[in-house]
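Hi L.,

You mentioned the student needs an example of a multi-chain input paired with its predicted structure. This one should do, with 322 residues in total across all chains.
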Amino acid sequence: MRFGIVVFPGTWSDTDCYYQVKDILGQDADYVWHREESLAGYDCVILPGGFSYGDYLRAGAIARFSPVMAALNKFAGGGGLVIGICNGFQVLCEAGLLPGVLMRNQHLEYRCQWTNLRTERTDTPFSRRCPPERPLLVPVSHGEGNYYAAPDTLARLEGEGRVLFRYCEPDGTVTAAANPNGSSHNIAGIVNEAGNVLGMMPHPERSCEPLLGSADGNLIFESVIDAVAVGGRN
Amino acid sequence: MYLAKVYVTLKPTVNDPQGITVLGGLKSLGFDSVEEVRVGKYLEVRIAAPERSQAEAKVTEMCRELLANPVIEEFRFELEEASPRPGG
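Structure written out for the whole complex:
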């Protein structure tokens, strides 16, 4: 399958994503410059982490006006799989493809640390390979990852089972101590209503081989590869 | 030419850790009478428009589409007639 990796001015995790899907997982992958106007031919599009447009005004606020975002809207509208990681998640929220907003971390610190993620459901194209019995070990690295949404939006997300990953203890218990940024309901990742767009703050591409301390991030992309192979898209 | 002074602030219901931290800083400096601090953004936008009402409409549109995030923020602005920037 073919991954498209979107590059905005200021994106910095693009090469890590490329390394993971191409070199580790053996898939086709291209960098897609943000001026591109089409995403035709891709099975999954990744918006990687970084500081697109310097985080000016608000994280992700300016990136959403890049030409590629119109293409992304079309791609997602047609059922294409989209994963926004860290700054990519912020961009998806600003663009209205996902609800809510990523605010400044509650404690105001930039956090670069390992987190445990409880997979809330394994019947999605992003999580079908994730083991339900144990959390994933995936790092975060951000200053603005504090997920906020109005109470009715949160209730809707929970009610519709759209919280995919939650920060938890190594044994899977969801506690305030396991929450690295103050996110509502310990939310680390959510999907859109149609279930084909995922936004997550932790970096699966930084946990892609044991040398890095964890290879759990591969499970998310392997899920996507599986889903595409069985026609989970389009 | 108009100058819009735009204030973007967090909605009252949204927690403001930056404001709380600044409040703590002021208190530790001895400003004991401070009760609350909320941090926001201030922008100056110069806009060419023949009439005030048109400038007002444009700035409102800008705020809605980009300058403020309606999920967590509110905006207000003051509009004043301004001369073009020297050299600009």
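You could point out the following to them. The helical segments of chain B are 17-28, 52-67. Residues 7 and 76 of chain B are 5 Å apart (CA to CA).

Best wishes,
N.
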